[in-house]
Amino acid sequence: MVFVTKSTSEHFSYPRTSTKVSKLFSGIPLVDLTKPDSKQLIVNACEEYGFFKIINHGVPMDFITRLESEAIKFFSLPLSEKEKSGPPNPLGYGNKHIGKNGDVGWVEYLLLTTNTESISQRFLSVFGNNAEEFCSALNDYISAVKKMTCEILELMSDGLKIQPRNVFSKLLMDEQSDSCFRLNHYPPCPELQGLSSASARNVIGFGEHTDPQIISVLRSNNTSGLQISLRDGSWISVPPDQNSFFINVGDSLQVLTNGRFESVRHRVLANGLKSRVSMIYFGGPPLSEKIAPLQSVMNAEEESMYKEFTWFEYKKSAYSSRLADNRLGHFERIAAA
C-alpha cells in the first residue's frame, strides 16, 4: 500500500518516554463464547480491565477476509483518489488528522455509518465498479459482528444478574442506533525503517483514548500495535490475533454500570516496518437515548456517580475534546463538601 505525505516529523508524535511500557502481556482475558462460564468471565474482565478477547465468536472468516481485502484495495489507491472521500465530517476519509481538535497520528482511516444504504454516492464513486462488492462485504461483516456484539451484551446482563437481559443490546438493535464503523490503516513509516531499535521504530498511530460508545469490537491483521493501559498507568501490548475479536468497554457502558465496568484507555503504536489494518465496530445508542446508571446494577444504598445525559449530548462533548481528555469528567457528580 502506498502512503505519500509530508515529512513524518511534521505530523506525528512519539510515545511518552515517561510512561512505563510493559513487555508483551499474555494475560489478556480470554472468553470462549461457546462455554457456559463465558458470562461470568465477561463480567470479571469488564471489571478488571474493561477489555477482553473473544474466540469461537461465530463470525464467518470469509466475511472478515473479504472486508479486509476491500479495505486494502481502498487504502492502496492514490492519495488523490482517497481524498475524494474526505475530509471527514466526521464520516469519510481522514489522513493523519484525527478529529478537529489537533490530534494527529500515523494513520489513515475511513469512518462510516453502519447503515450501508446511507453511504454517500460521493464516497462510493471512489470504488468505481467495485462499489457493490465493498458494500456487500461491509454489510455482511457488520451484520455478523453486530449479532455477536448483542450476544456479548446479553451475556453481560446474565453475568450481572439483571433483567431484562436485552437492557444493553436493545440500544444497538434500535433502528435509530447511532453506531459507526471504522477502517484504520497504519502504514510502514519510511523514515523509521533504518532505525536499529525496535522501540525507536514505534510512533503514535492513534493516541491514547477511551471509546465514548457502549462497546467497541476490534479485529486487526497480525501486525502488533494495540496497547491498553492498566490501572497502575502501565501500558500492555496486546498480541495480535487475526482470527479473534477484542472487546472494549466504552464510556457509556461505564456510566450504565455506575463505574462497575470501566472504559479501557488504549492506543495504537505504528510500526516502522509492517502495515497494520484494523476494523472496529462501535455500538452506540440512539441519539435521544438517556444515559444514566441502571438501578438494577446498583446496591440499595449506592448513589449515582454520573449525571443523566443523552447520547447526543455526550457525543457532542466527546467530539469537542482531545483524544486523551477525561471525557466523562464533565458528567460526574461532585460529592458534597
Account of the 3D structure:
By secondary structure, the chain is an alpha+beta fold. The chain has one domain (20-328): Jelly Rolls (Sandwich), CATH 2.60.120.330. The protein is 25% helix and 23% strand. The protein has eight helices and 14 strands. The protein has helices spanning 38-48, 61-75, 79-82, 121-124, 131-160, 169-173, 251-256, 311-319; strands spanning 30-32, 51-55, 92-98, 103-113, 180-186, 202-209, 215-220, 226-229, 235-237, 245-249, 266-271, 276-283, 290-291, 309-310. The chain has an eight-stranded mixed β-sheet with strand order 1-2-10-7-12-5-4-3. A hairpin with a 4-residue loop joins strand 3 and strand 4 (103-113). Helix 1 crosses helix 5 and helix 2 (61-75) crosses helix 5. 39% of the residues are buried.
How many DSSP helices?
8
Q: CATH homologous superfamily?
A: B-lactam Antibiotic, Isopenicillin N Synthase, Chain
Oligomer: single chain
Find the structural class using helix and strand composition: alpha+beta
Task: List the strand order in the largest sheet.
Answer: 1-2-10-7-12-5-4-3
Shape: globular
Briefly note the CATH topology name.
Jelly Rolls
CATH class: Mainly Beta
Poorly predicted regions: 2-9
Strand-residue fraction? 15-25%
Number of strands: 14
Mean pLDDT: 89
Helix-strand layout with pairing:
Elements: E1 30-32, H1 38-48, E2 51-55, H2 61-75, H3 79-82, E3 92-98, E4 103-113, H4 121-124, H5 131-160, H6 169-173, E5 180-186, E6 202-209, E7 215-220, E8 226-229, E9 235-237, E10 245-249, H7 251-256, E11 266-271, E12 276-283, E13 290-291, E14 309-310, H8 311-319
Parallel strand pairs: 1-2
Antiparallel strand pairs: 2-10, 3-4, 4-5, 5-12, 6-11, 7-10, 7-12, 8-9, 8-11, 13-14
Helix pairs in contact: 1-5, 2-5
